[in-house]
Structure formats: structure tokens, C-alpha cells
Amino acid sequence: MRTSPYPALIVIDQQKGIDHPKLGPRNNPNAQTQILDMLAVWRENDWPVYHVRHRSQSPDSVFWPDQLGYEFKPEFKPKADEMVITKGVPCAFCGSSLQQSLEESGFDTLVVVGAATHNSVEASARTAGNLGFNVLVVEDACYTFDKADFFGVVRSADEVHAMSLANLQGEYATVVNSSALLTKLLAEEPASAV
After folding, report:
1. 97 C-beta neighbours (distance < 10 Å), count
2. Measuring CA to CA, how many Å separate 132 from each of 91, 99, 110, 119?
3. Is residue 34 within 8 Å of residue 69, measured between CB atoms?
4. DSSP-derived secondary structure for 138-191
5. Distance, CA of 12 to CA of 136 (rounded, Å)
6. How far is CA 94 from CA 54, 127, 137, 161, 170, in A?
7. I need a labelling partner for 59 at 20 to 30 A (CA). Which of 47, 143, 185, 190 fits?
8. C-alpha distances in angstroms, 182 versus 37, 69, 97, 153?
């Protein structure tokens, strides 16, 4: 199988529903700006972009398909040549064509951004790592929400985010910063940049 010198950008769940107030307080208020900056770099360099959207099975979900929350946010609307992957569970690889598309195109390095860090980002990055992809999770281009732990203690979005990144780092993925990653990608030959 040929290997692409360019990393594929995986943008997760940037749909209108992700901003619904019922999801609660979130961290990384500038994460969506960071994602858009990265998306612009990928588009300028004609690198591969995959947009992942969630299609919920629950009518009360912010991602239920029969309401506006299911739609991509206008600033994240995919271009005609960008792949759209629809998932019904947190993991972008389950029940979708993502793995097949990446492998057929020769993409072995994935840059993962989006929401929510502890949910779809972590689930997708774990699976990608287990499948043998080189996974880079961009910590300042992901975000999540306050969540109660198993014992009922409410953890802040910052705590949930940090723990999720810790779960991934070194085991399933490498956690990186957007600025450092973009500097490296743009300064080096693609094959040696990641």
C-alpha cells in the first residue's frame, strides 16, 4: 500500500448542536478558532480533510437529524472535494467507511480535532491508534463539557479534557499543540513533518 506524505485532518462533530446550552459549560473557548485555522492550512495546501458528523438515534439529542442541530455549522461546511463521514456512535470508525477510505488513500497519519474530547474525539482516536494509524490529537483544537464522574462528583470541562488527553497520550495517540504542529508541518517536507 502506498503511504501519503500528508496527514489527514479529521474534524469531529462541528455541527450546530454542539453549541446547544444543554450540553453545559465547556473548556477551550478558542478551540473552534484553532480548528478553523488548521482547516484553512489544510485547504491552502490541498491536504486531505474528513468531516465527521454525528447522526443520533435519540430524538432528544442535539444531533437528531430532523432539526437544525444536525447541520454543519456554516463555517465548517465541507467543500465538495472533502469527505463527509456520518457516524451513529461516538467512534468515527464504527459503522462507517472511514477506515477503508483512509487506507485506500494511503493516509497513515491522522490529525484529530473537534468535540467532545472525552467522547467522540477519544473514542475515535483510541480506535485509530488500535488500527495502527499514527494519531495526533490537537489539545487546543478539541474541547469538552463539565461531566460528573462515576461517583457523582462534577468535574470541570478542563478536568475532563485533561484526563481524556492523558488517557490517549502515549497509548493511542500523541497529544500536540496546534501552533507547534502547524509550524512543523509548514517548515518541513511532509513525509518528515509528523
Report:
1. 12
2. 15, 11, 11, 20
3. no
4. EEEEEE-B-EE-TTS-EE-HHHHHHHHHHHHBTTTBEEE-HHHHHHHHHHS-HH
5. 14
6. 12, 9, 19, 23, 23
7. 143
8. 10, 30, 27, 37
pLDDT in tens, 147-176: 999 999 999 999 999 999 999 999 999 999
The Cα–Cα gap between 26 and 91 comes to 21
Threshold 0.90, pTM exceeds: yes
Split at pLDDT 50, 70, 90, the class of 81 is: very high
Angstrom distance (rounded) from CA 105 to CA 136: 18
Report the pLDDT value the prediction gives residue 1, as an integer from 0 to 100.
43
Quickly state the pLDDT bin for 133 (edges 50, 70, 90): very high
Q: pLDDT tens digit string along 103-112?
A: 999 999 999 9
Q: Are 12 and 115 in contact (CB under 8 A)?
A: yes
Lookup: cell for 89: 456512535
Phi-psi group of 49: left, alpha or beta (phi > 0 → left; psi -120 to 50 → alpha; rest → beta): beta
